[in-house]
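Hi F.,

I've been meaning to write this up properly since the lab meeting, where we talked about keeping a consistent format for the predictions we share between groups. The idea is simple: the sequence comes first, exactly as it goes in, then the structure tokens exactly as they come out, then a line or two of notes. No screenshots and no reformatting. I'm using this chain as the first example so we have something concrete to point to.
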Amino acid sequence: MLAPDWTWWTSVPVILVAVALLWVPGGLLAAGLGAGRWPSIALAPALTTSLTAVGGIVCGVLHVRWDLASMLVVLLVLPAAVLLVRLLLVRAVPVRPSARPPRGRRQHPGGLQAPAAPVREIVIGGAIAAAVAAATVVRGLAHPGDFPQQPDTIYHLGIVRYLLDTGSISSLTADGFNFPQEPSFYPAAFHGVAASLVLLTHAPGIIAVQCLLLVTAALVWPVGLMFLMTTVFPGNRPLVLVSGALASAIPGFPFLLSVWGPVWPLEYGYALIPAVLAVVALGLSQAFGGRSWASAAVLLVVALPGMSLAHTSATFAAAVGGFALAAAECWRFAHDPSREASRKPVRRWLPLAVLILAGVAGLLASTAVAPQGMLETSYDRVDVHRAVTGLLSLWAQRRLPFQLGGAAVLVLAVLGVVVAAVRRQGIWLAATWVLFLALGFLTSFLPGSLTWPLTWPWYNLQVRVQGVAAVYGVPLVAVGGAWLVRAVPVDARPLRRVGRVAVIVVVAGVVALQALGNAYAISRITRFGGTYAWADATKIAALREFSRILPDNAVVAADPWKGGMYLYVVGPEDTLIHTEKSWESDGIRLAAGLDRLRSDPAICAAVHRTGVTHVITGGSTYVTAGARTDDYAGIDDVTVADGFEVVDRAGPYTLWAVPSCQE
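Output, unedited:
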């Protein structure tokens, strides 16, 4: 494990700082942009992410180091200044009586009109969501220093340290972690927020990341979801509470993404989708209602960079839902006889026609600009039994109880679709969910040319598409669950009271079963051993011992397929090859021929340029490496090369000193 001295209890201060980091800057900015109290709370994480990501890019362009001083300016001074300007303007321009918002809505003067927030339901639902998420994570991840034994873990942990080392959190150069000679773009908003958390708390990178992920699952996602429900289903107070309680009820999100891959930035980006869609819904409502939608547009423009720079796939997922939402509003506009535009058929149907044309054009453009590799990539097909089982259980864990729990959630979601259709509320959610449900099934059962033109924004990977289905499915599960709870009326008759209690117990049981399934998924991926572990506890302990004897400025060569590159996140030392995807000229040269150091002047020159001082050999090879580990034969063969001396042995590894050489 990384950070062995840390526990979840000692991580509580980091969690609290993460909450403050996500909510204070974004809340100030949202209020300054006229969001109002409840929207400001729900939108705060998205706006903080935008401030961090865009501020990091600006600082990078200006060659200003991202430190506590620059962070203070970007995350506090700037949003506070926006809020101050707004307060001065509001005081200077009094609100006219005719500008009062409609009944049941709250409006910051001159700003966003949003349904009144059901405070009690939000607090109770949020508390349940936080408790379920915290219990899931702590049960599945007994130690915050544990991590998924998956390929991308070192990449995401390493980027956090790389951003801190370089003093730049700019997404324009974040992939310099993999390609230091030619730093390139990588959406690093999540990593920038994690790096900022490290600067504020001095916690190890793994602790900052795990605390940020916990806050994302426990607060960011449920609060955004409840904001969406208050917007799409105004006045339905019980539904808001149920949506918070059921926020973690679908297997595909958020916890599966936190261990599969892992794709932490994608999980973070998906968690921002509901709040962003709520702004879209409010803006469309105000636009079609003949009211000013400027504040909603500004909030949307400011929120989008955070979500997009967390992960571009999240923006595509939000765009599909936003299109469906806009189509529903255009349809309602065309069929509402109370609107003035309804007297003129052309004006009634023009918005929907324009939207359809834009959607077709966007789909064609998306297919045309799809990277060729994304349209040719081939993935193994899942057999029909597993594909159908996955669909019916919403891709729950394979154990039967978890699959039965997933099937129960599916029933609630289908019930939610029926309720939405009958009440004609939230039909766009149902359409979007069904679309991604079908795509999630097809990407596992029939991956190929029929689906790839539609799923390439999610890399044609089934779990990423299924995660989107979960994001849009949870609101429907909440609709179905809330209807089921309210279907049994409460009165003096004991049978009905028992029926209401029984329904609540069943729904609570489904949530508990899903929490156990999610915890099982987390524990299973973090506790692999043997060749299924990229860097298990034995390897990490060995690297920690090496770090104690190595100089802080050491540069160490290691075969990444055997886990030695985790030294980069264990101690202050640098590694020559950060991940198995790191390919730059000197790294390639030394990986293949470091053992020829004394006989090949080109190898010697590469060692001098890179400053390599030590080598790590040994360790088991990750199960999917195959023949790719042959590319690192020059590192492994230093065991029989001239001049390399053993410095230490620990666990499965041996640490060697690189001898001097003449170019």
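Notes:
The chain is about 60% helix and 5% strand.
Strands lie at 105-107, 113-115, 555-558, 574-575, 614-618, 645-650, 653-657.

If this format works for you, I'll send the rest the same way.

G.
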